[in-house]
Amino acid sequence: MSSNFFQPIDASAVPRFAGLSTFMRLPAVASAEGLDIALVGIPWDGGTTNRAGARHGPREIRNQSSLMRRVHHVSGTEPFSIANVADVGDLSVNPINLLDGLKRIEDGIAAIVAAGAIPLAAGGDHLTTLPVLRAVARDRPVGMIHFDAHSDTNDRYFGDNPYTHGTPFRRAIEEGLLDPKRVVQIGIRGSIYEPGEHDWAVAQGIRIIYMEEFVRRGAANVMEEARAIAGTGPTYVTFDIDCIDPSMAPGTGTPELGGFTTREAQEMVRLLDGLTIVGADVVEVAPPFDLGGMTALAGATMMFELLCVLAKSVQGARAPD
Ligand SMILES: [Mn+2]
Q1: Is 15 exposed, middle or buried (0-12, 13-18, 19+ CB in 10 A)?
Q2: From the CA of 304, how far away is ligand 1's center (Å)?
Q3: By CB atoms within 10 Å of each CB, which of 99, 243, 248, 275 scores lowest?
Q4: CB-hemisphere CA count at 13 Å for 226?
Q5: How many other CB atoms sit within 10 Å of the CB of residue 6?
Q6: pLDDT tens per residue across span 148-174
Q7: Residue 195 structural domain
C-alpha cells in the first residue's frame, strides 16, 4: 500500500451529488503514467445496428459511479489502497467515421498499455472491444471471459460490412487477437438469425454457455469451468450489460429477456479473482433507453466489481517492498 495512491473524494466532506463527475470520484488525470489501473471512457457507438445511444454510456456511468464506496463488502478489498487508480477521461473518438473511430480507440488504449497500466473501460458499444483488443493483444493472443446475451461472432451486416457490434469477436479471432480455445461466452440467449449462427464460433473452439445451462449449473459451477478455460495466461474480461435481464438493465441497445440478475452477475465477476487479467470493459449501457439511471448504476457497480478483482491481481503481482 502506498499513501501516494489517488483516492476518491471523501463523501463525508463533499456529498456524492456534488462536484465534477469522474469514475468513482477519483481524480481526473491527463495520462496513465504512474497508474496501475486506468478507468477510461469510450463514448462511441458507431457499430450499433439497432438502438443507438451507448456513446452516452461513459458520462452516465461516471455519474452513477459516485455511489461506489472504498471497500468491497464481501472480499474486503480496498482497491484504492492496493492499486493506483484514476480516471484518464474519454478516448478521442470520431462519431461519423467508423474506421477512424476504431483507430483512435486502439491508439488511446495502446497509450494506456504503454504506460504500464491496465485499462478498465466503459463503453461504448461492443465493437469498441475490438480496437481495445488490438492494443491489449498486440504482442500475443489473449483468452477472454465474455458475459453477454449475444455471441457477437457474426460475419457481415448490411451487405459486406465487417464491423458492427455483432461481429467484434469473429474479427478478433481472424486477426489473431484471441485464442478461441481460451474464450468462454456466458449468458448467451435470445432468438437468432439462423439455426447455425453459432457454428463458426464453436468450430473455432469457443465454449458457449447458454443461459439455460447457467440456470441449471449456477454461478460457482460455471465459473469453475470458465476459469479452467481461461487458464493462467493473459485474459481479457468483457461485460456486455445486456447479459443482465432487461428488467434490471433496460438501458441497452439489444435487450434480451431471461438474463442474469445483477446479483448473479456480481457473483460471477467475484469468481474471476486470481486470473491474469490484462484488461476489462463494461459495454452497451445506452442511457437514452435507461430508467432512472438503473442500467448505468449496474454498469458502474460491475466496473467496481471488476476493479476490485484487478486491484487484487495488481497487488499480487507487485514485488514486496
Ligand atoms: Mn455484446
Answers
A1: exposed
A2: 20
A3: 99
A4: 30
A5: 16
A6: 999 999 999 999 999 999 999 999 999
A7: 23-317
Q: Directed axis angle between helix 294-317 and helix 57-64, to 10°?
A: 80
Q: Cα(21) to centroid of ligand 1, in Å?
A: 26
Distance CA 153, CA 188 (A): 12
The pLDDT value recorded for residue 185 is 98
Q: Which residues contact 118 (CB under 8 A, 6 or more apart)?
A: 36, 37, 38, 277, 278, 279, 280, 310, 314
Ligand 1 centroid to residue 152 C-alpha, Å: 6
- Would residue 49 count as lying in a domain? yes
In a domain, 126, yes or no: yes
Amino acid at 228: A
DSSP 94-111: -TT-HHHHHHHHHHHHHH
148 Cα to the center of ligand 1, angstroms: 5
Phi, psi of 115 (to 5 degrees): -80, -5
Question: Has residue 6 been placed in a domain?
Answer: no
Question: What distance in angstroms lies between residue 185's CA and the mean position of ligand 1's atoms?
Answer: 10
Task: Assess if residue 7 is contained within a domain.
Answer: no
Q: What's the gap in Å between 114 CA and the centre of ligand 1?
A: 27
β-sheet bridge partners, residue 120: 39, 280
Lookup result for grid cell 451486416: 157
How many domains, in total, are found in the chain? Answer: 1
Enter the pTM of the model.
0.98
Q: What is the CATH number of the domain that holds 198?
A: 3.40.800.10
Q: Could you tell me how many residues make up the chain?
A: 321
- State the cell numbers at 61: 456511468
| Residue list for the binding site for Mn(2+) | 126, 148, 150, 152, 240, 242
- Taking the CA atoms of residue 302, residue 177, residue 42 and residue 306 in that order, the dihedral angle to the nearest 10 degrees is 20
